[in-house]
UniProtKB/TrEMBL annotation:
Taxonomic superkingdom: Bacteria
Record GO cellular component, one term: ATP-binding cassette (ABC) transporter complex
Domain ABC transmembrane type-1: 70-265
Membrane topology: Multi-pass membrane protein
PANTHER family according to UniProt: GLUTAMINE TRANSPORT SYSTEM PERMEASE PROTEIN GLNP, MEMBRANE COMPONENT OF AMINO ACID ABC TRANSPORTER
PROSITE patterns the record matches: ABC_TM1
Protein name: ABC transporter permease
Membrane-spanning parts: 26-43, 74-94, 115-136, 142-159, 180-201, 247-265
């Protein structure tokens, strides 16, 4: 065989990178569909329906599941978010301060409350504080305790988010404000922080979703019937009826809030990316 014959032979070509990705994606879809079909065939739907989808039990939950449980959950979440946002702002500014002790205190707070489980914070507020300060009552009763517990947890995360947002604002903004006669504090409040919040609005909204779910820990504070949130409300009815339908309904009520909030977060992130482009 001559060199010319070798050159005339067609070269063997393998799959391109795009074809490999397409093939890999197709295999993943097939595996996923097969797993879903296997689950649907193997599951005992009658037992699941009897345990989680009793229409009569679900009807008994209304309207209290909305007017009482969901309302309390929203109130707990919003109050905790407000406390966390205010405290997080203070801690973020301390973290950025030129004063060493402020930075050290803010760092210690963030590491502690970001590392501890939220459950321990609730137990601390509900048990340790009354033991340490006998006769002392947190203003607002259960609502005040939940707002403080959720706020302490959220502040650690929000502080880092706010700090990152402030540092993302171009330094020229502060320099321009100072050249116009603004003091550092006024420039921070009037110029830097508003721009930072436009940057960090999506992650802050995501934090609101997380707080909405963490509000279920309120049951460790010992709430009354009128102070129950969705998880406590569903668990109490599940115990009374010996059925898990109330828990499923409570979970669906969580989704009524978290899914729209998640959609809002995605829309804000998309708009933020478009603004950058």
């Amino acid at each position: 065989m001559t060199a010319t014959d070798v050159q005339l032979q067609p070269k063997k070509k393998g799959l391109t990178r795009r074809q490999k990705r397409t093939l890999s994606r197709g295999v993943q879809y097939v595996v996923f569909v097969a797993a879903v079909i296997a689950f649907a065939v193997a599951a005992d739907w009658d037992r699941l329906r009897n345990q989680f989808a009793q229409k009569a039990i679900a009807e008994q939950m209304f309207p209290e599941v909305i007017t009482l449980a969901l309302k309390n959950t929203v109130l707990y979440t919003l109050s905790g978010f407000a406390v966390g946002l205010a405290l997080g702002m203070v801690i973020a500014l301390m973290r950025l301060s030129s004063v060493g002790p402020y930075r050290w205190l803010a760092g210690v707070y963030i590491e502690i409350f970001r590392g501890l489980p939220a459950l321990l914070i609730f137990i601390f507020i509900g048990v340790a504080v009354p033991l340490a300060f006998p006769g002392t009552e947190i203003p607002g009763g259960t609502y005040g305790k939940v707002a403080l517990a959720l706020g302490l947890v959220a502040a650690a995360y929000m502080a880092e988010t706010i700090r990152a947002g402030i540092q993302a604002v171009p330094k020229g903004q502060m320099e321009a404000a100072r050249s116009l006669g603004f003091s550092p504090a006024r420039a921070m409040v009037s110029i830097i922080i508003p721009q930072a919040f436009r940057i960090i609005l999506p992650p802050l909204t995501n934090e609101l979703v997380l707080l909405f779910k963490d509000s279920s820990l309120v049951l460790f504070l010992g709430v009354t019937l009128e102070e129950r949130e969705l998880s406590k409300f569903g668990r109490d009815l599940a115990s009374q009826t010996a059925n898990s339908t109330p828990i499923l309904v409570a979970g669906l009520c969580y989704l009524l809030v978290t899914i729209p909030l998640g959609f809002v977060v995605r829309r804000m992130e998309a708009k933020a990316q478009e603004a950058v482009k």
